[in-house]
Amino acid sequence: MSWTRALKHTVRTGMTIERASLEPLVALRATVGLALVIGAGLALLGPGAAASSAFGAFMAAIAAFQPSWRPRPVLALASGLTLAVSTFVGYLVGASNTALFLALLAVWTFLTGLVWAAGATAGIIASGNVAIMLVTVTLPTSVAQAAGHAAMIAAGGVVQALLIVVFPVRRWGAHRDALADALAAEADYARRLRQDPAAPFDPQPLMKARDAAAVTVRQARRRPAELHGARGLAERVRPVLAALADPAVGAPAEGPARDRVRELLAAAAEVLDAAARAIRRGAPVRLPAPALAVLKAPDLGDVLTGPPLRAARRLAALLDGVLETAEPGSGRTADPAASMLRPTLRSLVPVVLRDVRGELHPGSTILRHAVRLTAATSAGYLIGQALPFGHGYWAPMACVMAMRPDFTQTYARAVARFGGTLAGVTAATAIVRLAQPGMYLSGLLAVVSAGLMYVLMRTGYAVAQAFVSAYVVFLLGMGGLRWDQTVPDRVALTLVGGLLAMLAYAVYPAWESPRLRGRLADWLAAAGRYAAAVLGQYADPAGARPAEVRAALLAARDARIAWQEALERAAGEPVRHRGPSGEAADGAGDALAALGRGAMLLEAHVPDRAQAPVPGAAALAEALRTQTEAGAKAVRERRVPEWEDVRTLLTSWDAPESGVLRGAADQLLESLEAFSEALRP
């Protein structure tokens, strides 16, 4: 993509207003918290302290809106307390020497860039702390006042956290939605399998549900029973659905057995949808009687035989478990010891430090982001101080809030920030000039602006930025600053900061396009390890290690999602595409998805521990593992992988009596050959 097209794309992306599900009650709670903090600050301590506490409450509420599975009060407290520390340290350094403050800003922004290694939520909170610190360090005039302002900022975060605890809105709602979305995705998959036995399935809803299932010890004790256990059953349902539908290992493509399979798949979809609705609403399961009758039909064995019959019976048993688990008040109790436990914030520190250390190498995207962020923010601060405007902190603030580790987000946010700022300050200026608000009315207008931002923040960054800009104008006006002392400066310096952010990425980029072959190779190797782990179960049923298969499956899913995200980021980059062509990428991705599907079909028919080992399974597993690793190396070196060892083994392999293994193994080889064909020039 050329630079012209890329810039047009980022402008459209940044200024897009999306239809999004709103959370008015959550926004109202955050707005009430902000109003309480501003009102108490104005009544008891004056406009300066009120502004500080307002910034703390404002950022704490934004932190609680971030997509994280941690308890919302913890996010609000973490934001308020870290912002208080940043403000106090920043004032101590900045009050004595501008050069020292610039050095502190550089260190702070560099660490903020590295924190993105811990995830987007941590990076957003850290970026917000740096941005607000640039404002709040200018409010106090003494060390004692700086300590007071820091205390007020922390108090703002505490107020928001307390409101979340005292007035919960749809407690466990995000966790319910994640699990319900996973079940609904499987219901849709079952319906599509009726018409297309090889229908693809995107594992992202299952991965999201897994992330949501990792809880703290305190959460594990309080988690509703219907959220405990259903995800594991859902994971086991998917391969059974695929095995039942696939003609190679399930029912024939046509005939009475195929008609029966279609009925079973339709009934399974209704059961999964009913369970999803019940979990999402916390209501009893309402299951149509015909769907249950199909799954419990007594003539099941008269139509289906062999592997399809076993798969149908297993599906019925799994769906019974899903229904039992999804029923509120089913008597199940959450066991913290059996839960996937999420580390506390204190125990998370060494994990974050390890992740950060892992990014300290020249090719790291996170390290490049940290360097860009430091350079652009420091330059913005110096330019803001040198220009004949007041409030020079708005240039570095725009830098730190616009910059992200990838190109499209950075440029889109820079454009959206300027457009939103221009709209917000224009509207706020008109209101100020017409109404001439005093201290309390300015505070009220600031609260209203923040409330509208909370409600609409998911519709787009430009919309949110418009209300943030109005909020800042009214908040500073609360302290006596006239509109003409803030508005022109903010617009001009926001433009400077956005341009610096865009220039920094152009000068020191971290393009995704050259990494695409590596991402594809990672997925190939991970998919090969998963298939080999499943075949290992056939080679040694008595020593089966399901945990090893599960770990390989999750690694393959992670690699697939990383490839898909990288492909999406690369599509908007203004560089010559040095990865596989679009057609080759699509074909290779489809082939690897089919490889994973073939391994999943094998997993659905893993033998019992009492059965004898399948001859040749161990050799085939080893050949798959070594050849996919060699194939991954070939992809990185721009060569086409070869699969001669796997082909030779399958040619001489004596298929077991059921034919299930043979059919699934042949699909593995077909997928590998399709992968090579997609990459062949």
Automatic annotation (TrEMBL):
Name of the featured protein: FUSC family protein
The keyword Transmembrane helix appears for this protein: yes
InterPro entries: Memb_transporter_dom (IPR049453)
Localization: Membrane
Residue intervals of the Integral membrane bound transporter domain: 381-503
Transmembrane regions: 74-93, 99-117, 150-169, 414-432, 438-456, 461-479, 491-511
Pfam families: FUSC_2 (PF13515)
Keywords: Membrane, Transmembrane, Transmembrane helix
Gene source species: Streptomyces goshikiensis
Membrane topology: Multi-pass membrane protein
Superkingdom as given in the UniProt entry: Bacteria
